[in-house]
Amino acid sequence: MSQATYDAPEGILLVDKPQGITSHDVVAKMRRIFHIKKVGHAGTLDPMATGLLLILIGKATKASQYLMSLDKEYTGTIRLGQITDSQDADGEMLEVRDVPKLLKENVLAEMKNFMGDQYQTPPMFSAKKIHGHKLYKLARQGKIIKREPRVIHISCFELIDFSLPELSFLVGTSKGAYVRTIAHDLGERLTCGGHLNKLRRTAVGQFRVEKSYTIDSLEELSPSSLRKKLIPIIRAVPTHAL
Hints:
By secondary structure, the protein is an alpha+beta fold. The protein has helices at 3-6, 23-34, 64-68, 104-112, 135-140, 179-189, 215-219, 223-228, 233-236, and strands spanning 11-17, 39-41, 50-57, 72-80, 82-84, 93-96, 116-120, 129-130, 133-134, 150-163, 166-173, 194-204, 207-208. It contains nine helices and 13 strands.
């Protein structure tokens, strides 16, 4: 084994992804900062979303499947009365409806119905592949294909702020859940429609966004300081998952 390989950095880095860039963009920046090609992430965040992105450096990429299977926590805002093709603020407006004079109790009652196991149909504007094609690429071509619903679990769905036409929330989900679909579906249950206006991932399993680092702060660190930010794989992933 060469000295260069032996000294290659490895571990999990908690990054606070800013709005407006893709998860792939963050990976590219980390490759440049760490001067290493073997970099990945454990769970995509849409460009409009901010928050916790688990960046995997070196041999930590082996743990991607395990880390992606962990439960997630998000905060966000739903804009009622506006339906978009992507179910979030980045999409094209499809329909505008009047927002009824909802009571907070009405919203809480509908949110309660989302708790537990349920089927969710992946949105067309998603990175999910069907027959080798990413859905969002087909959606941009104006194509809509059948998607099989899949089982997801919602462990919590709390109302943080009630200021019509916007609702702020906290949600805990299993792997594979689309929060923008939850926002869309809640809007439909409230009869006025809605879309996800803001989203921030606050936790992935035991990892919290409060312990993460901004890209700007990482770019200012020395190589030795960067390495100290890495969480050893053995501290985060069971040995059977490697």
